[in-house]
Amino acid sequence: MEELQKRNELKMNSRRRGYDGKSNPVARCFCSVELMSQTPSRSPPNAEEQGRTQLRTAQHPPGQRPSQGKFFKLRQPLHPFAAVVLGVCCVLLCAGIWWFVTRGETAEERIFSPLTLPSPAETFATFPSLWFERAFSQNLLITLRRLVLGFGLATIVGVPLGVLAGCFPPLHAFLTPLVLFGRNIPIAALIPLMFAFFGIAETQKVMFIFIACVAFIVADSAANVLAVGQEYIDTAYTLGAKRRHIITKVLVPLAMPVIFDSLRLLFGLAFGYIMLAETVKLGGEEGGLGALILTSQRRTMTAHIILIILIIPIVALAIDRILYLVQRQLFPHRYGGLGILKRLVRFVAHGWQALKGMIIKPEPGMERMVADQLATIAAHHPDFQKKLDRADLPRSGTEWRP
């Protein structure tokens, strides 16, 4: 009875102060906390859990969940078909805005004049002249050749440097100033230096892509190697692996899926850099999409510039999807896929190891160590020697092949 009277008095006091637990969930929380502080607890270990339950009930009463809306729920998974429909709607909206600001027969009727922004119909009507008369396909191949050479050279240099920097902290500290400088320098400022060092030929375009991308590749490769857990290295050391084996058989295979994904994303960034390099033309070097844009600007052919700008993302997206398919086949355990390229690479690696084992006698590693340990144990335990003789185990000094 005394406990019930105390509860009633607390409820009356809370109502006098303006707390209404039914209409105000937060006030109900305060009342619950006050009741818990005044009422003696019969089970001290469960008092904290009971308070948390009452607090959750006060914030979200049963049947009164906070409304998140029907179409814009936070982090709600979206169906793939709905995602495609929304993307198409975005494209149609942009095309509709383009048509609206360029509608009209004469320049006076339009918001933008035909010289500034042609209509969609006028723009796509000039595609045959861009493709045939101005050799769009040839210029596209020239741009892709420069891009592949420059980015491939940056990958050949940047990935090994990044892996070594991620493995050895002194090298990482040594390369950090160069990486920070290369990632933050304005790329456009390098163009005059590229002309001074490499002239106006194809070498200038390739080296521009190399310098623009190599710092990013080194930084991402080092970060991905550093992200590999230390437990893998400790396990490899426990099994008797050497330092070079840990780098080539533990760190590189574990970091390579993420490194490849980073290279795929950086390739799209390099597409923008090659456009910048090709728009600066001083001599009679070959064309490219950037040079095609520059020539169209001088001839006030705005429709061709818009077409090139629309085609470049489509080509970049197609290359990105091809690289993504290669990525899935190389690393099916990470991204899903059949693993066809992974099996091919493994077959080539095993063939190379077998060929190397026939030419160069490999150093017996773990097998020699295990055989020595078994021989030591057998020398002190004669019964173990009989079991060792019956077992098909390597002996100390026997020849080892991979």
Describe this structure in words.
The protein is extended. By secondary structure, it is mostly helical. It is 72% helix and 0% strand.
Secondary-structure map:
Elements: H1 2-16, H2 25-38, H3 47-59, H4 80-101, H5 120-125, H6 127-133, H7 136-167, H8 169-184, H9 190-198, H10 202-226, H11 230-238, H12 243-278, H13 289-298, H14 302-330, H15 332-335, H16 340-359, H17 366-380, H18 382-390
Task: Give short descriptive properties of this protein.
about 400 residues; mainly alpha; disordered C terminus; 18 helices
Task: Kindly state the number of beta strands.
Answer: 0
- Summarize model confidence as the mean pLDDT: 79
Poorly predicted ranges: 17-45, 393-402
* Order of H and E elements: HHHHHHHHHHHHHHHHHH
User: Structural class, judged by helices and strands?
Assistant: mainly alpha
User: The biggest beta sheet, please?
Assistant: none
What's the total helix number?
Answer: 18
Specify the overall morphology. extended
